[in-house]
Design a protein that fits this description.
By secondary structure, this protein is mainly alpha-helical. It is built from 17 helices and no strands.
Length: 407
Amino acid sequence: MAVTTTPASRRLPRHFWLLWVGTFVNRAATFVAPFLMLFLTGERGLAATTAGVVLAVQGGGLALSNLIGGWLADRWGRRNTMLAGLSLTAVIVLILPEVRNLWLVVALVGALGLVADLHRPALNALVADAVPEEDRTRAYSLLHWAINLGMSVAMVGGGVLSEIGFAWLFRFDAVATAAFAVLIWRLLPAGPEVAAAPSADASSAVDWWRNGRLLAFVSITAVVFGIYFQNYVTLPLAVTATGLTPRDFGVMLAVNGIAVAVLQPLLANHLGRLRPSGALVGAYLLIGAGYGLVAIAGDLLSLAGTVLLWSLGEIVLVAVGSAFVVALAPAHARGRYLGVYGAAIASSAAVAPLAGTTIYAWNSTVLWVGCFVLTLIASVVQLMLRPAAPAAAPETVGPLVTVEEKA
């Protein structure tokens, strides 16, 4: 896939584009996650409720995976953590379709949750290490673009492969994950990635649980993403309740894919110029308005318009959110801070189905209006947050993080 070669994009280091390509390849074959429920209920014959419990176990594992991955990224190194996480994921994904015993299936799905996101905090920390501060928002925006382009390919390819056999979904996923690991192993040079130990004065900044700004921000993040994840939980219920079909719902979600694919690269160069808190407030309100208006949207066109609103919010949120966390973190603790951020998102993905369906069953209007009200509250809290300059600490060093290098 051709990469835009504008002057702005050429300022990003070569290693960033390596991570971009690896992310796209990996996501283009991410077949297991979207088809795991069908595999468990169809191929393994589990009841839907049992399969839901298994997926909840995986969701809890993903939250822990981010925390562990962030700690390893700072202590063991970005490259080593990514290699370990991707390699373990490929092995488990390859074994899983061959297992028939229920308890082994549950154990492997739980183990998959524990390792699947180990590489993510390390990858995001590596981007922060390698990319100058003024370009980080654009870098994270382009990385999210790669994820969405890859997932679009995966959804189409996964449907085709599932007709051949579910085992092939797992095999291709494992191969793509291993390919990303090989790219890192062969093309990302090893170096002294682990920062020197912080001084006593800076030690408190390493302890993310003592950083009030971070705790407030990840709490906001969990709430907003809990709203965002209703797109696969209660939004389809609301769509079919209006008399529309599942096919119509697919058309609506296509609006999200098209919006991100087209607008993310176009807006990437501009997002970094916005004030972070202001941009995040805008993202929250777009997401809140998108879901809040579902309460009064009654036809396909108006519902597609609500999807466009929260898609615009998504584009801003994922680009600015990671950069905001990096601004809160000392250089030697970026992995841990980003791991906490990722854990908040993973936790909201696990909680969103239970909370959303419970409120929807009680009163659907309360759910949608509540989504908007919660984003208003999140916006007020966000405006009170300012990324303070993190405590001084030695910057990560080594060939991986040479910002002068140009692609």
